[in-house]
Amino acid sequence: MFLALGVIAALGYLLGSVNFAVLVAKRHGVDILKEGSGNPGATNVKRVLGKGPGNLVFALDALKGLVGTGLPHLILLLKVDLGLPKDDAQALFFVSVAGFIGTLLGHCFSCFLKFKGGKGVASTIGGLLVLLPVPIVIGAAIWGLVFAFARYVSLASIALGVSLPLSCWLLPLVTSQKFGPAEFWFAAAIAAFNVWTHRSNVGRLLAGTENRFSKKA
């Protein structure tokens, strides 16, 4: 089990460290680290290069999160012996969380970019489609609503993160959906990490200097 946790986390980190914002921008002759906000993420690519490249980076980052989190399931399908639990859903959840955390850390602190990286929103969404599919779908809807009205990507992303533990807490009260303590506290940790990675954006939002997408854009 410990071998599986370590191997999955390490593989997730290496996968997460591949920064698609840098790669896509480079194909357009742009060093995204020196343009716009300087952040190597989908939002900055969209701001600098437009919708097409920005959406492509978002999709690739989400896929990266999904694959990194789903590594235990892929390894089980390939029948590679890493001591992964086959019939213990809770243990498999924890191993998948290790892949998710490794991927997210790689994205935010890439070993290929001197431990710099993006905010991790798209990769978080991709990973949570494996771990918490219903809460992340609700969170994505909240993201869309907040962005449509406020036009701030950062504010919408923070709202998405905060919605995750709230969904894990409220859904069992009104539906048959069940979440254990592990899922709730995991969602709470993701929300806290999401706010932390957006701490500079929070400062700009409070100061009224945060970049805002216009309706035309």
Give an overview in words.
The chain has helices spanning 2-16, 20-27, 42-49, 51-69, 71-78, 89-108, 121-131, 133-150, 153-174, 181-197, 199-207. The chain is an all-alpha fold and 217 residues long. It has two domains: 1-131, no CATH class; 132-217, no CATH class. The protein is globular and about 50 Å long.
Q: How do you describe this structure in short?
A:
This protein is mostly helical and 217 residues long. It is built from eleven helices and no strands.
How are the secondary structure elements laid out?
Elements (H helix, E strand, L loop, with lengths): L1 H15 L3 H8 L14 H8 L1 H19 L1 H8 L10 H20 L12 H11 L1 H18 L2 H22 L6 H17 L1 H9 L10
Helix pairs in contact: 1-4, 1-6, 2-3, 2-4, 3-4, 4-6, 4-7, 6-7, 7-8, 8-9, 9-10
Main features:
217 residues; mainly alpha; 2 domains; globular
Largest sheet: none
Low-confidence stretches: none
Order of helices and strands: HHHHHHHHHHH
Instruction: Characterize the quaternary organization of these chains.
Output: single chain
